[in-house]
Write a structure and sequence with these properties.
The protein is an alpha/beta fold and 288 residues long. 34% of the residues lie in helices and 19% in strands. The longest helix is centred in the C-terminal third of the chain and has 14 residues, at 272-285.
Length: 288
């Protein structure tokens, strides 16, 4: 535990500018880090493969921060809320932050190699929607995310917070050559590409039947523009979620959760002892 009372202390530089996306991205890239906010997200970080660099909290959250980081040999900086606000650029009312190191990028072919269900995201740059999708993906048996070059950073603070830290346990990879670089990756691994669209001529998602051995890629686009014509043209199936005629659309995060549930693999068991055992194995297997 290291008490600090100077917001210009160099040890806090990597916590700067948390509300300035452009400056924050530069800091993250320079130091190879990202910031986690909140007690629950901190606990999920501590159990994840990402290396923890340090913790930062106000005195009232010292006990929970130290407990979450037990077993991690890192400093925990303690400062008043005024110092935290001066460092980060906002009132850290949750009182808990942590800095973690990024891992080497995952190659798309490696991500799909052992997967049964993946999500392909195009143009998802709203961090809250991205975090909500990641949380549902973890809860409903998705094995990983494939992102286009314009998607937001899954490790951005707001995305991690909205996902309740679950994005830290969900592999992701980017494909720069989009979408032409996507198809060889999916085809080589035997994935069927199912694109979600509100188009009236798309088939209802309720008609999709999935066998236990099927490998499925669920494709989602940003709210408003939706999926590009090139991506829709390359999909094996185009499906829609039927909604009442007087409602224009539903949030992409909600649509994602519905699709994940409807298209989940029949071979995956959820709930009860199976879920508890899976969660325990994940925690024990996470490298420290």
């Amino acid at each position: 535990m290291v008490p600090l009372d100077d917001p210009t202390d160099q040890r806090l530089t990597t916590y700067n500018a948390l509300t300035d996306a452009q400056r924050r991205a530069a800091i993250d890239a320079e130091h190879g880090v990202f910031v986690v906010e909140g007690q629950l997200a901190l606990q999920r970080l501590a159990a994840s493969p990402y290396p923890v660099r340090s913790g930062l909290c106000h005195p009232g959250k010292l006990d929970v921060t130290m407990a979450a980081l037990a077993g991690h040999d890192v400093p925990v900086y303690v400062a008043g809320r005024d110092v935290l606000a001066a460092v980060t650029g906002f009132d850290v009312h949750r009182g808990v932050l942590a800095l973690a190191g990024r891992l080497p990028p995952t190659m798309p072919a490696d991500l799909v190699a052992g997967a049964r269900t993946i999500v392909v995201l195009e143009g998802l740059n709203d961090q809250e929607n991205l975090g909500a999708i990641a949380r549902s993906a973890r809860a409903l048996g998705i094995d990983g995310l494939l992102l286009d070059p314009t998607c937001g950073d899954p490790l951005y603070r707001r995305c991690v917070r909205v996902s309740m830290g679950e994005v830290l346990h969900l592999p992701f990879a980017r494909i720069d050559d989009w979408p032409s670089g996507l198809w060889p990756v999916l085809e080589a691994a035997g994935f069927e590409c199912i694109a979600l669209t509100p188009a009236g001529d798309a088939e209802s998602i309720s008609t999709v039947q999935r066998a236990a051995g099927d490998r499925v890629a669920i494709v989602l686009g940003a709210e408003g523009p939706g999926l590009s014509s090139a991506l829709l043209a390359g999909a094996v199936r185009r499906v829609r979620i039927p909604i009442t005629s007087d409602v224009d659309s539903i949030n992409v995060g909600h649509a994602a959760a519905i699709a994940f549930d409807r298209l989940r693999s029949p071979s995956i068991a959820f709930g009860g002892a199976e879920a508890r055992a899976s969660a325990l194995n994940t925690r024990h297997a996470a490298p420290r």
